[in-house]
Structure formats: structure tokens, C-alpha cells
Amino acid sequence: MEQATSGSWKLTLPCNRAEAEAIAAADESMIALDPPPVLVTTEPDPAQPDAWRLDAYFDREPEAIALAFVRSLVPSCTIAPAVAPVVDEDWLVMSQSGLEPIRAGRFFVFTSAYAGTAPPGGIAFEIEAGRAFGTGHHETTSGCLEALDKLAIDPFQNIADIGTGTGLLAFAAHRLWPEACVVASDIDPVSIEVSTANAAINGIALGEAPGQVALSIADGLDAPLLQARAPYDLIVANILAGPLIVLAPALSKALAAGGTLILAGLLENQADAVEAAYREVSLQPRQRLQRGDWPTLVLRKP
């Protein structure tokens, strides 16, 4: 009889495309579960673009509350949740096996399950799918990577990544502007742990000196390190539309005159409202990049 490895369990549920995209963008809700599952959404059949699948991987047999939570993420599902042990395979590698590397500008992002080689001339990062959002596979993160790459000729020296998740966007900024001061923050302490581990994997120097990436737990910009380093000439905030609108005055205040702001985590039908909130605090739209249903806004402070 086959045995489950490391006590790992898997729940598979059908979902639609909108639910799959919402799951990828709303990773902050995982804070409520301890430990959180790894959620992987896939499109099994391209001929059925609205028929997606959600796989939830747990490192132990999940309790009823965890199953109910995952089930609540896919309200279109009409079947009862059924969970089964994962046999003869490492659960994290299995959960990552469907994640193909992504390209965004010069950036190439892959997981440890990728057996190939990075393309020559690119900027490669190994980022695991796990407890924090931001592997690069969602359009919000890859859109920010593309926006950063397009800004590479600008001479930024003081950079903040708000809602860093895995640390990927802060690391990308560090590679583009290696002499700059970079700070990455997140409201979730787990994200800072994940970012620390990813920094080691990718050879990113952590610290508060120029040429290093500093990490901080913060709710928005509410942290001494973030406030002390302001104003910034580049801020990236890949969060959600609601928090971005609330943070508009604070982000504008933290941005230096002539500085650039990259916003993501919003759906196409939310972009105008987010942009309007930043117009009210005197930021001017510079560019809007579109990946699927997820725009990335680039704004500038006069």
C-alpha cells in the first residue's frame, strides 16, 4: 500500500478563471491559517478557458476549518471537498511542477523544480511557490517586473517595495540599480521570513547600506525604517485595489518630487478608480501595462 510522504495532503476543486485569478491576488487572506496551504491554480484544458482547477497542498492532515476556508475561495464549486494524502512525492515540488518559468522584460523567474537553464543575458531569480505571494507567475508581479525593466535607464537611488511578498520585486530593483538603497516591507512576518530565505538563494545582500536590501515588517508605510528613509525616488506597491486607494496620500507623501510609483494588484475594472485616487494627490499617470485582466500603473510625481 502506498504511503503519504511527510504527512502531506492535497485537496483538488474545480473553479472558474475569475476565482483562480482572485485566489492569486488575495494571498494576504492566508494569514488566517497556520500553517497556510500552498495554493496552485491551473488551466487543464486551453479549449475550456473558464474551466480551471485549484489544488491546495497541506503539510499535515487539514482540519475542517481549513477545508471550509479553501472551499470558500471557489463559490462556483458544487462538489463537497475531499482531501487525500499525497503519496510518494514531495508535496512542495509537486505543487510547483506546473509552474513554468516566466519572462518579464529581462527577468526570468523559475522554481527549483525547473530543470532547464536560464537564458543568456537575462536576470534570473529562483523563487519558490510557498507561503508568500509573488513568485512572478501572477500577472500582477510579472507586470511590475516588466515596468521595472522599462525604467532601467532611470537613475534611481532610493527604492521601496511595499507588500514585498517573496522579496522578488525588491531583488529585481536591486539588480537593476545595484548601488541604490532598497527597502522591502510586508505586513505579514512570514513574508519577511520567506524573503530572507529567497535572498540567500539568489545571492542578495541584506542590510541597510547602499547596495543592500533591507527588510521590514510594516503595515503600509508605518515602520520607523520606511519613514526614516523617505522620500523615495521609486516605490513599488503590489497589493490590492482597496489598500492602494487608502494608501494614496501616504505613498504620495513618501515619494520625492520627480519620483516614480508602480502600482499593481488591481483588476482592469478597478484601474480608473485607483488612478483617480492618485490624481487627487497630484500624481500623474505615465504608463499603463496590461497583462491579461491585470493592469500595472506607472505614475510620476511632478
How would you characterize the overall build of this protein?
- This protein has 302 residues and is of the alpha/beta class.
- The chain folds into 2 domains: 4-94, 2-Layer Sandwich (Alpha-Beta Plaits); 139-300, 3-Layer(aba) Sandwich (Rossmann fold), CATH 3.40.50.
- Helices cover 29% and strands 29% of the residues.
- It is built from 10 helices and 14 strands.
- The protein has helices at 17-25, 64-72, 91-96, 139-150, 168-176, 189-202, 224-229, 241-246, 248-254, 271-279; strands at 4-15, 38-42, 52-58, 83-87, 102-104, 107-110, 123-126, 158-162, 181-186, 213-217, 232-238, 255-264, 284-291, 294-300.
- A hairpin with a 2-residue loop joins β5 and β6.
- α4 (139-150) runs parallel beside α5.
- The longest helix is centred in the middle third of the chain and has 14 residues, at 189-202.
- It is globular, with a radius of gyration of 19 Å.
- The N and C termini lie far apart (67 Å).
- Mean pLDDT is 84; it is low at 1-6, 88-97 and 131-136.
